[in-house]
Design goal:
The structure holds two protein chains of two kinds. By secondary structure, chain A is an alpha/beta fold. Chain A is 37% helix and 16% strand. In chain A, helix 3 packs parallel to helix 5. By secondary structure, chain B is of the alpha+beta class. The complex binds thiamine diphosphate, iron/sulfur cluster and magnesium ion.
């Protein structure tokens, strides 16, 4: 899908997200693909905080704030309710942050996937609990400085790796799962459009840089979201009918992660050794991807 | 008519009876602009522009429409449009008061 194929309608507009917010872009574009028959549920997090400031209500479609842990279960209810009323052409869509997905909402999400509920769950991943001031989440990457994982001399930021949510969703035998990035919107839009047509549970995990939490300029959001894919740190892939597939393959040799890290103050403390360790991890991951996804 | 949240005339003070009884309200109901956030505004050079629509696509606020009109009531001046433009047809101009 490309810009010309999109509706002129704007479903997420007038919101109070910071300038250059990747999460706002992820929600705006997904809604443009899904259209007016999408019923949205958003838990606590930046997108609900910036979208619903009564009386400033920035969704043009039906949208509601869910409990923090219950994005997926609320979607289950929305879907069942609409179906009971005889509606056929609609999408129950959730927009939850990384904290709201990989930590707080993972149980409800797992249950919905297990039941095969006909919902679309979108995780916009800015890699920390941004709305409360940048705390580490299960999706913060190794080495990232957050307020709960400060960068000191002995411990340099987050000591844990990013949870593999895409694979976790896939491991349920989900109908459809995908990774995406707001840096490559055509790829993201293809995935949303595909998810719209699939019955069963869909999980899309989109990288959405946050200038505030990442310590970057507001105009760098898109290039960072491209860098993370181009460096091979975030493969753009999908999972369908039990098969993994790369959708937009990063060109090899991959872009140097060093440049990606250098642009962000949350990584400024990383040593050459830290970056080498992260790069080695990436290479290991790609060996696995080539074997499992591509059979080589 | 396109579907889009729109600015309403909000009476200054709301009476208690104006508020909903539960947490529900009309969708797409705006009472404020976001213009005050900006220190720079994008200006499109229509001569240079090739009409690729990347600025329209990548704007997090949806403030550039597909006819390339910029809604300065809601643009926050992030500069993403100027950066994404392959032919540098958008420049950021300092806001003066
Ligand atoms: C039950 C509950 N616990 C904690 C909070 C406080 N809280 C609100 S937003 C937020 C951060 C959410 O982080 P994430 O899901 O990553 O979304 P982001 O803000 O980064 O977009 C937290 C902890 C809350 N609102 N409700
Ligand atoms: S703090 Fe980050 S995620 Fe939240 S609105 Fe601002 S830019 Fe977006
Ligand atoms: Mg977050």
């Amino acid at each position: 899908m490309n810009a010309r194929e999109l509706t002129k309608d704007e479903y997420f507009f007038g919101h109070k997200a910071c300038a250059g917010c990747g999460g706002a872009l992820a929600v705006r574009i997904a809604m443009k693909v899904l259209g007016k028959n999408a019923y949205a549920a958003l838990p606590a997090g930046c997108m609900s905080a910036v979208g619903f400031n009564f009386p400033q209500l920035c969704f043009a479609n039906n949208a509601i704030i869910s409990t923090f842990a219950g994005t997926a279960s609320m979607l289950t209810g929305i879907e069942a309710g609409l179906r009971a009323q005889g509606a056929t052409d609609f999408t129950a869509v959730g927009f939850a942050g990384d904290g709201g997905t990989a930590d707080i909402g993972i149980q409800a999400l797992s249950g919905a996937i297990d039941r095969g509920d006909d919902i679309l769950y979108i995780c916009y991943d800015n890699e920390a609990y941004m709305n409360t001031g940048v705390q580490k989440s299960g999706l913060s990457p190794f080495g990232a400085k957050t307020t709960t994982t400060p960068a000191g001399e002995r411990i340099r930021g987050n000591i844990r790796p990013k949870k593999r949510m895409f694979e976790i969703a896939a491991a349920h035998g989900i109908a459809y799962a995908a990774t995406a990035s707001v840096g490559y919107l055509n790829d993201y839009m293809d995935k949303i459009a595909k998810a719209k047509t699939i019955r069963g549970t869909k999980y899309i995990h989109v990288i959405a840089p946050c200038p505030v939490g990442w310590g970057t300029r507001t105009d760098e959001t898109i290039e960072l979201a491209r860098d993370i894919a181009d460096t091979g740190l975030w493969p753009l892939a999908e999972y369908e009918n039990g098969v993994f597939r790369l959708t937009k393959r990063a060109r090899e040799p991959f872009a140097d992660p060093q440049n990606y890290f250098k642009k962000q103050s949350r990584f400024r403390h990383l040593t050459a050794g830290d970056i080498a360790a992260i790069t080695a991890d990436r290479d290991l991951n790609w060996e696995k991807i080539k074997k499992e996804y591509e059979g080589s | 008519m396109i579907i889009k949240p729109t600015l309403r005339d909000r009476p200054g003070a709301w009476a208690l009876s104006d508020y909903p009884e539960g947490t529900y309200w009309e969708a797409g109901y705006l009472t404020q602009k976001n213009a005050g956030w900006r220190s720079e505004r994008p200006v499109i050079d229509k001569e240079k522009c090739t009409g690729c629509l990347q600025c329209y696509l990548y704007c997090p606020d949806g403030t550039i429409d597909s006819d390339l009109n910029i809604d300065c009531d809601f643009c926050k001046g992030c500069g993403i449009c100027a950066k994404i433009c392959r032919v540098s047809a958008i420049r950021m101009e300092g806001e003066t008061r």
